[in-house]
Amino acid sequence: PPDVTELGRSSWTFLHAMTAKYPEKPNLNQQGEMKDFLNIFSKVYPCHWCAMDFAKYIENHSPKVESRDELGQWMCEAHNHVNAKLGKPKFDCNFWKQRWKDGWE
Ligand code: FAD
Known about the structure:
By secondary structure, the protein is mainly alpha-helical. Helix content is 70%, strand content 0%. The protein has a single domain, classed as Up-down Bundle (Four Helix Bundle (Hemerythrin (Met), subunit A)). It has five helices and no strands. Flavin-adenine dinucleotide binds next to helix 1, helix 3, helix 4 and helix 5. Flavin-adenine dinucleotide binds at residues 4-5, 8-9, 11-12, 16, 45, 49-50, 53-54, 76, 79-80, 82-83, 86, 88, 91, 96, 99.
């Protein structure tokens, strides 16, 4: 089975890529689906303590689903929360789009 590190790297790739393709101006249905997805994701993520912590993070920091830019910032901050917990450097969230959507120059 994938270990927690490999699972995490793949999962962040998925989450940030999903965010990069989220509509710039999502309708209410799309906003609701993204909220539902993140709630369910935080329950089925196959690393129990990671999932518990992510669920708690979502409870205290409600996902910002009103636009792609807001969701991108939210996801970056959620990832930074885990980075901090693991003693990894903080990522500058001004660069999430270059990293996950447009590519570095
Ligand atoms: P990752 O953290 O996987 O990041 C991959 C790439 O994303 C980086 O190389 C960088 O280019 C980019 N990046 C880094 N930070 C950001 C950011 N803030 N915003 C946008 N892009 C960024 N591991 C544990 O040991 N314990 C846990 O409790 C735990 N909880 C997790 C919870 C979730 C929801 C997820 C998805 C993962 C969790 N992980 C946990 C795994 C952990 O976050 C890392 O994925 C893993 O340690 C591999 O780290 P990495 O250094 O390869 O880079």
